[in-house]
Amino acid sequence: MNNNKQNKQKYFGTDGVRGKVGGEVINAEFALRLGYAAGKVFAREHAARRGKPTVLIGKDTRISGYMLESALEAGFASAGVEVLLAGPLPTPAVAYLTRTWRLVAGIVISASHNPYYDNGIKFFSSQGMKLPDATQQAIEDALDEPLECVSSEHLGRARRIDDAPGRYIEFCKSTFPSDLDLDGLKLVVDAANGAAYHIAPHVFRELGAEVHAIGVSPNGFNINKDVGALHPGSLAAEVRSRGADLGIALDGDADRIQMVDAEGRVYNGDELLFAVIKERMSRGAVDGVVGTLMTNYGFERQIKKLGIGFERAQVGDRYVLEQLQNRGWLYGGESSGHLLCLDCHTTGDGIIAALQVLAALKRSGETMSQWVSELRMYPQKMINAPLKPGTDWENHAGLLAAQKKVESLLGERGRMLIRASGTEPILRLMVEAEDELLANQCIEILAAVDLAS
Asked: Would you say the pTM of this structure is higher than 0.90?
């Protein structure tokens, strides 16, 4: 169960509700209650408009998706809300269709990159973005109310939508420059046995690429298992064995991406974001970029060297989006592969991010390694230090002394990040430096501090 310390929410974390299916939160009873509570709130907000409020429900390929989908459907219907069922669909596809169909909300049943036995429920607003805090809090409050049902004449009904994948495929293609195609490009596309298994290969094929698809045989239990963005080694091996030009790996709900070149080198979110930014700069000014606390220091230095503003957000694409909106910037992302191009979509989208990178390579005629060659990624060292519960680590004399020593060694040649885990009694210690020897020296200094006794 996720706790949000900024308000009294019990269930909604930074990315909806998540947990192990059958656990404390994610089960059929909770999904039913959540559907009813959200339905009541949406119906109330929709009261001044004609007709019944309508929501869209999409899901990934986990076995538990069937159960949670049915429970949510029943909850919404009992609150008088109409339901459109899209079946397996990427998270960004739900955001897009919710916005274009002028629905009151979109719901995604997915635990993203997690194993099959986890699941989650995420909401999008009518604008294809996160729910306003007030709406989210209203749903939390309604969860504590009795589960009831509107009268028969006011019940909502549900219907299947068959053309949702096709509509989303066309939207993805529309973000690729109309004067370019992917003809002559040989790609391996890994859909992680997830929500994009029947979508991602078609997008790249229809733009002209020769595509070999892997991770496109979901069985309810194999989502993210040894494939996808969390396991790019599988993709790298396939790219090399097939002599492909590039490989594209998505995660279970297709909002995360990693890419691989012909030599099998993996490119993470920082490098891919840089590829996009460099292409955008060739067409005009880029005001600023938002990364996270984990964005590589080499990326930050190169972005600033190019005269572009840079800010760090907390880890999580929601926080990156908030920073972008606050500053009026368009581009941001995480090292893990969540990339936001707000000139293309309202949320992070793995397929669309890949298309932006491919457009840069096609227009320049360069390979991936050539295109990002000026980006020097700094070696990163990270350890988890046991922390005695109740320790005031921010004022710990030994840690303060170690920090001062590390800062003196690093100067402008790197950075240090220390943060407490939100779920375990450990302190996460990270150092990035211009060379590996310096990074190791600094992390050893921090690791020598005893915080557990």
From this structure: yes
